[in-house]
Amino acid sequence: MGLVQSVCGAVGAEALGHCQIHEHIFVRWTPMAVQNPALKLDCFEASLRELKSYRASGGTSLVDAQPVAAGRDVSALERLSRESGVLIVGSTGYHLLGFYPQDCWIHALDGEELYALYRSEVEKGMLPWTEDGAQRPPRAGGIRAGMMKAAIPSEGPVGRYRVLLRAAARAAADTGTPLMLHTESGRHAGEALKLCFDAGLRPEKTVVCHVDRQAADFTPHDRIASSGVYLDYDTVGRFRYHSDEAEIALLRHMVEQGYGGRLLLSLDTTAARLKAYGGTIGLTYLLHEFLPLLRRSGFSEEETACFNRGNCQRLFSG
């Protein structure tokens, strides 16, 4: 089985154990926090308490999905991983443009420079966090990224997003790194995936996120899954979108359609949902609440084990 690059070094994919593929555990200030303060997670002690609770409940690993220059603090992630015992996979790539200050250095990079940056963060090391977002950090440390993050807005991969996505997809393809694609409820995922595949990215190394923010219409889920990618259902416990019962109905449909081997579960956490920050459900929600609810609803142990164990291992090692 293949290796996974964590912030504390490479490990075998089997070491992931229970893995939540799309979380946020420590994020510095970004402009998006002005609109939503819950997007800032910069209390080390609170993040550590959350991770220790997750570890004690059976959580083994997670991916922190905050990319370069968008509030990611690699040094904090490494220390949190070592002190909590939770394997943390760091991310490179890019987020929605609202996460970057207007004078951020990232805006000046063309497609080739973005590709070189993302590839370097996977192969050599991720750039450190600096308070001055206008200046590119002068050096990279030895902590390498293990996930490529990409994002498309509701209008799809247009304008600057097309440049960013192609650079991220090329870098992921050339390094063998999984790519996590943020979407707005799956809209324009087909266009984005075509661009990624044209850049050389394989479907089995691709994860499409947030499609389950809309759980009533199964059609877009079937269409995206038929391309061979993984779907990360990360709206569990986010009741402003829908109930957990609606999520379970969606999961049952997808398993019945033969897509159970390509489904992942996570929580896409913010301060509003992490208990150590005064939030509601905590990183342990899948372990304590949702996975037991799935089993009570008729899902087998084998099926539920795939969502956070076997499928995550195949994503990284495939």
Describe the structure.
- It is a single chain.
- The chain is α/β, with parallel strands linked by helices and 318 residues long.
- The chain has a single domain (3-317), classed as Metal-dependent hydrolases (TIM Barrel).
- It contains ten helices and eleven strands.
- The chain has helices spanning 32-35, 44-56, 74-84, 111-123, 160-175, 189-198, 219-225, 244-256, 285-296, 301-317, and strands spanning 3-6, 9-12, 19-23, 61-64, 87-89, 91-93, 147-151, 179-182, 206-209, 230-233, 263-265.
- The strands form three sheets. A six-stranded parallel sheet has the order 6-7-8-9-10-11.
- Helix 4 runs parallel beside helix 5 (160-175) and helix 5 packs across helix 6 (189-198).
Brief overview:
The protein is of the alpha/beta class and 318 residues long.
Structural topology:
Blueprint lengths: L2 E4 L2 E4 L6 E5 L8 H4 L8 H13 L4 E4 L9 H11 L2 E3 L1 E3 L17 H13 L23 E5 L8 H16 L3 E4 L6 H10 L7 E4 L9 H7 L4 E4 L10 H13 L6 E3 L19 H12 L4 H17 L1
Parallel strand pairs: 3-4, 4-5, 6-7, 7-8, 8-9, 9-10, 10-11
Antiparallel strand pairs: 1-2
Shape: globular
- The count of β-strands is 11
Runs in which pLDDT lies below 50 for 5 or more consecutive residues are: none
The helical percent reads 25-40%
Give the CA-CA distance, first to last residue.
8 Å
In CATH, the architecture is Alpha-Beta Barrel
Q: Which structural class is indicated by helix and strand composition? A: alpha/beta
How confident overall, as mean pLDDT? 97
Q: What's the CATH H-level homologous superfamily?
A: Metal-dependent hydrolases
Assigned CATH class = Alpha Beta
Strand order of the largest sheet: 6-7-8-9-10-11
CATH topology: TIM Barrel
Counting DSSP H or I runs of 4 or more residues, the number of helices is: 10
- Return Rg in Å: 18 Å
